[in-house]
Amino acid sequence: MSYFRANIDAMTGYVPGEQPREGSKVIKLNTNENPYPASESIGRAVESVLRRGMQRYPDPLATAFRMRAGEVLGVPADWILCGNGSDEILTLVTRAFVGEGERLRLPYPSYILYKTLAQIQGATSEEIHFDEQWRLGPDFTAASPDLKLAFLPNPNSPSGTLIPPEQVLELARTLPCPLIVDEAYVDFAEDNCVRLVKECDKILVSRTLSKSYALAGLRFGYVVAQPHIIEGLRKLKDSYNCDALSIAAATAAIDDQTWLAANVAKIRASRATLTAAVRKLGFTAINSQANFVWCTMPGRELKPLYEHLKANGVLVRYMPYAGWGEGLRISVGTDDQNDVCLALLTEALRKPPTPRC
Ligand SMILES: Cc1ncc(COP(=O)(O)O)c(C=O)c1O
Q1: What's the 272 CA to ligand 1 centre distance in angstroms?
Q2: Which residue has a Cα nearest atom 3 of ligand 1?
Q3: Which atom of ligand 1 is nearest the CA belonging to 32?
Q4: Is the pTM of this model over 0.70?
Q5: Which CATH class is domain 16-37+258-350?
Q6: Residues 306, 269 contacting (CB under 8 angstroms)
Q7: Of 35, 58, 72, 155, which cross-links 244 as Cys (Cβ 3.0–4.6 Å)?
Q8: How far, in Å, from the CA of 85 to the mean position of ligand 1?
């Protein structure tokens, strides 16, 4: 006999990308982390919290972070809610809007977690396929019974493509429910949707410090939305969902916009070199606005390439999408790391492909 709700028993659970043991020498290009260390000011901020001691609970609303982030983004602090990584934000938003038997909508292929969030709620997820150019047609905004929330990763994962903000606004206005624009990778892109939040209260924008601020190990994310939406979301969150160390570190990180700009410039330059190199190897790689490159090669099985890389100490993400096809998603590393990856891909591609049965 199971003690779990039937929908929990029925689901398999989200499987995050492989995380090798601490200290291993693997070149990690599989979970879109930043290859460079974060701003040095973060260490000083954390040390000062440790010196002060941690016997008191942290600020439940991470006000220091919200005030600085508000200045950077051009929104008041009460338009921001912080979370333990943007995954927590996505969970809160799903719990807030989507009940059992109701429905959420997501593009396909996109971030696999959204479907898991629907399963936890006992809700239905409706996957709307991107077209060949990674655009979304009218199916994405169509009225549908019980539709309570739509997800839009922008830039999308795995493609790295961006739907321009004016089109996102159009999607939100047409949808009969809120739209959460997941901007986990947006600092690497040409534009973002934060300004749309002022125009339409159906738009929520989630962000993370895991990628562009090189703080995946910290767990800090946030959402920008109109104050009545933020107020509603506050009711669901754990009282102290962000700890004192992470609030101090995240505040120092967002304060250092000079570090961010320099880091983004380096990643974008390496992304261009990596994209050109994989194309030269015969992959199809659409221009990415994120810190990864999506590589496909119709007619060639890609799992053996992934396995060759892994056997030689380089992890990339092999992603098979049922009804869509497969690809390798390669996170942009340092130029040296990318070179090792490219050399191994070149080697693997010289081997004859495994015949398909
Ligand atoms: C599209 C997308 N959204 C959100 C996240 C989660 O980021 P966080 O580390 O803030 O939980 C990821 C992580 O890879 C992602 O790819």
Answers
A1: 22
A2: 184
A3: 14
A4: yes
A5: alpha beta
A6: no
A7: 58
A8: 8
